[in-house]
């Protein structure tokens, strides 16, 4: 029996056909290969039909109906147009997987199309496969430099260090116009920024600030 999956998105209704689901489901290694490789995944799940919503209002109405487990005329037309009509008294040669159980019941009552709930993990496998496929399409790997990602990561860290040092020097430079003595008291850039934020206006500095300064500097003598 053929298996289709109905997917309701913000853009419209999509119908996917699943191939060799039972065969793959019995083999963990095959499942892993199917969702991590674009070629394998494309052979397991293929887009059969797509129906876009006409407007944002239409999308809202359709999604509200789906959440309530109701099949709209638009969804019914979409299914009947892309699936073989089930003859009265005959067993269908396909079934449709849906995420909303109530919607599946309504579809069966109205069209006699056998709709069943997706098993736990089916949606996650499909999403994982799509994520891998999308990443492979967007990220350009250089086969001659397999360490490119490491190099880029190190470069990014170096850039962060330079930026932090630059900002720290700017804080020291600007705040020293207000409180020049602080530069000689606090050498560490991070602690200097914290102390400057605590003090703000030097004219308001008092004995009450000593405990807070001690917590930052870990040195009561320096805080005094």
Automatic annotation (TrEMBL):
Gene3D superfamilies: 1.10.287.4070
Pfam families, sorted: Nop (PF01798), NOP5NT (PF08156)
A single cellular component GO annotation: box C/D methylation guide snoRNP complex
Limits of the NOSIC domain: 149-201
One GO term of the biological process aspect: ribosome biogenesis
Keywords: Nucleus, Ribosome biogenesis
Annotated InterPro entries: Nop56/Nop58, NOP58/56_N, Nop_dom, Nop_dom_sf, NOSIC
Compartments (UniProt record): Nucleus, Nucleolus
GO molecular function terms noted in the UniProt entry: snoRNA binding
Membership in a protein family: Belongs to the NOP5/NOP56 family.
PANTHER family with a match to the protein in the record: NUCLEOLAR PROTEIN 5 NUCLEOLAR PROTEIN NOP5 NOP58, NUCLEOLAR PROTEIN 56
Record-given protein name: Nucleolar protein 56
Protein's organism: Rubroshorea leprosula
């Amino acid at each position: 029996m053929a298996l289709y999956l109905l997917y309701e998105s913000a853009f419209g209704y999509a119908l996917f056909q699943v191939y060799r689901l039972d065969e793959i489901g019995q083999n963990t290694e095959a499942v892993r290969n199917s969702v991590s490789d674009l070629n394998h995944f494309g052979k397991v799940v293929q887009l059969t039909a797509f129906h876009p919503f006409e407007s944002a209002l239409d999308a809202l109405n359709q999604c509200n109906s789906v959440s309530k487990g109701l099949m709209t005329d638009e969804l019914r037309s979409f299914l009947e147009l892309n699936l073989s009509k089930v003859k009265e008294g005959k067993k269908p040669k396909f079934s449709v997987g849906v995420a909303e159980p109530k919607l599946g019941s309504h579809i069966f009552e109205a069209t006699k199309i056998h709709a069943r709930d997706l098993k736990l993990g089916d949606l996650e496998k499909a999403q994982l496969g799509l994520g891998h496929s999308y990443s492979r399409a967007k990220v350009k790997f250089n086969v001659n430099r397999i360490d490119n990602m490491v190099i880029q990561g190190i470069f990014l860290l170096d850039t962060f260090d330079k930026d932090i040092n630059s900002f720290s020097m700017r804080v020291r430079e600007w705040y020293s116009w207000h409180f020049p003595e602080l530069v000689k008291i606090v050498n560490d850039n991070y602690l200097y920024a914290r102390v400057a934020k605590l003090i703000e206006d030097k004219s308001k500095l008092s004995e009450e600030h000593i405990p807070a300064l001690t917590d930052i500097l870990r040195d009561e003598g320096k805080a005094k």
